[in-house]
């Protein structure tokens, strides 16, 4: 006769876990974190970081232990401090203020966000009024709006905004987008703008980043087969919140966002036989592993990884850190 522990293990309910791939860290997030780590190694603590370097408390708390200090505005950093700008990008006024205060700064803005900034400048120089598709208040939006003079960019958040938007001159119009949006939502908004303003100019290549697109494609692949989907990410992470929305639209019976394994509401999984799992672009793989282990303690777990593509993108850190 087996022990009580063996009997308990044998009676654990079965659960199939569909693990979305790609998931978790993207190249821009990885680069931003490396910039903070390398700056701490090269210059010593403290290094000040304007805004959360990426939207993930676990990442931020680990960097704080290494000596990073997170601030919202530059006036919180003392004279002569070393400052890093977050992956989301900053208005032009921020590096100008850093120079005025003689702060040494490093820019960890994701290169794909910087690409949007360059596009905004190009359209502005061409005399275009610019429509920015995105979510008000997000740091990436604040950074993009701050690349040009006030009034040069109009923010459109949804299809209703696109239908009601009135340009100064429909023949001189261009659009750019936040990099972490829902691919489907953005496509709908762009379609409306193109229908209403056939001459509107767009980006040479989609602004929505490869990682956002890939993670949404992966969650679309697992969601029709899942009774429920868990997405690991921070509540202020745009790309993570979009994954929850995409999962439900793609056929999952339910989906929710959690920051870590300890946040799982087990009552939501009571009748679940097939569970989907993904992670936003600012969530480390260690958080995925923790969730898998938490599931293992309660279920006889069968794991299937569903991969839609392989990612091999990398971005270089600033030369001053690499030297």
CATH class of the largest domain: Alpha Beta
Could you name the CATH homologous superfamily of the largest domain? 4-hydroxy-3-methylbut-2-enyl diphosphate reductase, catalytic domain
- What would you report as the Rg, rounded to the nearest angstrom? 22 Å
Which sequence of strands runs across the widest sheet? 10-9-11-1-12
Distance between the termini: 65 Å
Approximately how much beta-strand content do the residues carry?
15-25%
Structural features, described:
By secondary structure, the chain is α/β, with parallel strands linked by helices. It has three domains: 9-26 and 210-307, 4-hydroxy-3-methylbut-2-enyl diphosphate reductase, catalytic domain (Cobalt-precorrin-4 Transmethylase, domain 1), CATH 3.40.1010.20; 27-110, Rossmann fold; 112-208, 3-Layer(aba) Sandwich (Cobalt-precorrin-4 Transmethylase, domain 1). The protein contains twelve helices and twelve strands. Helix 9 (210-222) runs parallel beside helix 10 (238-249). 41% of the residues are buried.
């Amino acid at each position: 006769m087996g022990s009580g522990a063996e009997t308990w293990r044998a009676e654990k309910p079965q659960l199939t876990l569909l693990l979305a791939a790609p998931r978790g860290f993207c190249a821009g997030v990885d680069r931003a974190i490396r910039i903070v780590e390398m700056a701490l190694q090269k210059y010593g603590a403290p290094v000040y970081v304007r805004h959360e370097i990426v939207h993930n408390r676990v990442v931020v708390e680990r960097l704080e232990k290494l000596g990073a200090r997170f601030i919202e505005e530059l006036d919180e950093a003392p004279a002569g401090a070393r400052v890093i700008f977050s992956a989301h990008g900053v208005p032009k006024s921020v590096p100008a203020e850093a120079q005025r205060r003689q702060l040494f700064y490093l820019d960890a803005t994701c290169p794909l966000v910087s690409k949007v900034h360059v596009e905004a400048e190009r359209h502005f120089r061409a005399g275009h009024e610019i429509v920015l598709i995105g979510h008000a208040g997000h740091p990436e939006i604040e950074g993009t709006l701050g690349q040009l003079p006030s009034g040069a960019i109009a923010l459109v958040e949804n299809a209703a905004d696109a239908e009601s938007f009135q340009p100064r001159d429909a023949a001189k119009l261009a659009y750019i987008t936040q990099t972490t949006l829902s691919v489907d939502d953005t496509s709908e908004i762009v379609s409306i703008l193109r229908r209403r303003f056939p001459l509107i100019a767009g980006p040479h290549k989609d602004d929505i980043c490869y990682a956002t697109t890939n993670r949404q494609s992966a969650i679309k692949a697992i969601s029709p087969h899942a009774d429920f989907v868990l997405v690991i990410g921070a509540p202020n992470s745009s790309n993570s919140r979009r994954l929850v929305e995409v999962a439900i639209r793609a056929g999952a019976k339910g989906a929710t966002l959690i920051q870590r394994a300890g946040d799982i509401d087990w009552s939501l999984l009571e009748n679940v036989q097939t569970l989907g799992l993904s992670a936003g672009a600012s969530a480390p793989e260690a958080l995925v592993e923790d969730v898998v282990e938490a599931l293992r303690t309660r279920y006889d777990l069968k794991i299937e990884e569903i991969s839609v593509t392989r990612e091999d993108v990398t971005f270089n850190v600033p030369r001053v850190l690499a030297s």
